[in-house]
Each structure stands twice: as structure tokens, then as C-alpha cells.
Write a structure and sequence with these properties.
The chain is α/β, with parallel strands linked by helices. The chain has ten helices and six strands; from the N terminus they run αααβαββαβαββαααα. The protein has one domain (6-273): Nucleotidyltransferase, domain 5. A six-stranded mixed β-sheet has the order 3-2-1-4-5-6, sandwiched between helices. It is globular, with a radius of gyration of 19 Å. The chain starts with 5 loop residues before the first helix and ends with a helix.
Length: 275
């Protein structure tokens, strides 16, 4: 891998960042898939360091939070106790998104439980330089985690969606989302703007993530076999999203919009971080 020309490395990482599968990259570039995987992990870890070091004192004012599901090796219902200890099973990525700049200040890969919700929000509060409005879904762990991390220094509200049950669906539609029959906005801490209690923007980011991280594509045979590889792929995605990809809504990168970066980055810049 160390002798792989940088041009080839950039081509491979660019394809992975745009949602191409490892085997497809192998066929297009002639690089062996094991080399591609090692390269992606190395660059992904460098991207994680970049995000850790650059996302501080952020001027964000309106943060939305959501979680996106994936799995390692096999889905949770098929995992034995021994396999669970090895990190196999369901995995969730907590995502935060600034409504105005579209920046993703922080994320966390783990389980959808109280400890991970707390760690995620604790990390988020340390990256803000001012009071924010925070919006989440109705996951029970969030309220306690917000109280322990932000205290009273936040305007926090939850959006609660009620889904209907459609027993008439045929097998072709069983994976479609249920119809939303009611939406409630609950102000919980501080004085949040009622009309801006929403998770719509971060949910749209979930779609972007599934399109750009091949192992998160639904209803396919794409998945991660190792947690480290999954974490590296997620870190690569958010570094690419924040620093490289021009967002169509703001016509620049989120990092530039938030004042984190002063120029447009390239995939070559991300690859050089891992050298």
C-alpha cells in the first residue's frame, strides 16, 4: 500500500467517498480489494483526527440530532452472546447537524442507549461556543443526557412522530416506512423556537450518508464485517461531507460556511493527511 501511487489512492478514496463498493473500485482501478480496505481504514482514521482537531468553538445556533442504523457482520437478531462480545450486531451512528451551515460538528458510532447518547451530547456541548437550540427525536435517553451535559444552557425541544399501522401492505412494501399520522413538538428545556423544533435537515443528511457510504445502503448485501472498518468509513464520509463536497443548499462546503476552513479541500488533501 505504501508503494501505491498517490493518484491511485486519490482515485480509490474518491470512489469510496461517493458510495462505490470496494469490489467495484477494485474492478475500476485494478487495486486489490485488501489494499483498498487497508487504505480506506488508514485515511478514515486520519479523517477522524481532522474532525476531532478542527471542530471546536463552533458558532452554530440550531443543532438537530438523529441516529442512523447499520450493522456489523449480521443483524442483531442473529447474533450470539459470543459474537456480541466481538462487536457484531446492530450499530447506530449518532449525528448532529447545524441547520444553517449544514455542518456536522460531531458524530458517534455505538449502541442506541443511554451511555452512548450521553457521550455524544457531552462531546457536542464541548464543541459549541454559544448557547444553541437543540432538536432531537423522542428517544428516551436524550432528555436525561441533555440535562447532564447542557444543563440549563440550552433551548431544547423534542419532535414526536406517531406512525400508523397498515396491515394491508403486501410483501413488496413491507420495508416502506409507515405513514406519519401525527407530529408533536415538545419544548423541554429553556425557550426553544417552537417552529424550529425539527429533525428534517438531519434526516436528509441520513439519506446523503446512505448514498455515500456503501455499507449503509439498505436492502443490499453491503455491510461491514469489522467495527473498525465501519468507523473509518463513517469518518471518511463526514470529512468528505464537511470539507470537500459542495453543498447544493449553501453553494459551498459546510466547513467554509461555519468558518472551520478557509478554502475548498480536495480528496488529495484527505489522502495526504494519512501519509
Amino acid at each position: 500500500m505504501n508503494s501505491l501511487p498517490q493518484e491511485k489512492q486519490v482515485t480509490a478514496i474518491s470512489a469510496l467517498a461517493e458510495g462505490t463498493s470496494i469490489r467495484s473500485v477494485e474492478r475500476m482501478t485494478g487495486i486489490h480489494r485488501d489494499t483498498i480496505m487497508r487504505l480506506s481504514v488508514r485515511v478514515g482514521r486520519a479523517c477522524h483526527r481532522l474532525l476531532e482537531e478542527s471542530m471546536h468553538d463552533l458558532p452554530c445556533r440550531d443543532i438537530q440530532v438523529d441516529e442512523i442504523w447499520g450493522y456489523i457482520g449480521k443483524k442483531e437478531r442473529h447474533v450470539t452472546i459470543e459474537e456480541e462480545a466481538q462487536g457484531l450486531g446492530d450499530v447506530w451512528t449518532f449525528i448532529s447537524l447545524d441547520r444553517e451551515t449544514k455542518l456536522v460538528p460531531t458524530f458517534l458510532v455505538g449502541k442506541r442507549d443511554h451511555p452512548h447518547a450521553y457521550c455524544f451530547l457531552h462531546d457536542l456541548t464541548g464543541r459549541m461556543k454559544n448557547r444553541i437550540q437543540l432538536s432531537t427525536d423522542a428517544m428516551g435517553a436524550y432528555l436525561t443526557a441533555v440535562e447532564k451535559t447542557f444543563g440549563e444552557n440550552v433551548d431544547y425541544g423534542q419532535i414526536v412522530k406517531t406512525y400508523g399501522v397498515d396491515d394491508t401492505r403486501d410483501g413488496q412494501r413491507k420495508y416502506s416506512p409507515a405513514n406519519i399520522v401525527a407530529v408533536m413538538r415538545n419544548p423541554l428545556v429553556g425557550n426553544p423556537d417552537y417552529g424550529r423544533i425539527s429533525t428534517s435537515h438531519v434526516e436528509r443528511q441520513n439519506l446523503t450518508m446512505r448514498m455515500h457510504v456503501r455499507r449503509l445502503t439498505r436492502l443490499t448485501n453491503a455491510f461491514s464485517k469489522k467495527l473498525d472498518n465501519f468507523k473509518a468509513a463513517v469518518a471518511l464520509h463526514f470529512a468528505y461531507y464537511n470539507f470537500v463536497k459542495v453543498h447544493s443548499a449553501i453553494r459551498t462546503t459546510p466547513a467554509i460556511a461555519a468558518g472551520v476552513a478557509s478554502r475548498l479541500w480536495t480528496v488529495s488533501d484527505l489522502v495526504e493527511l494519512a501519509c
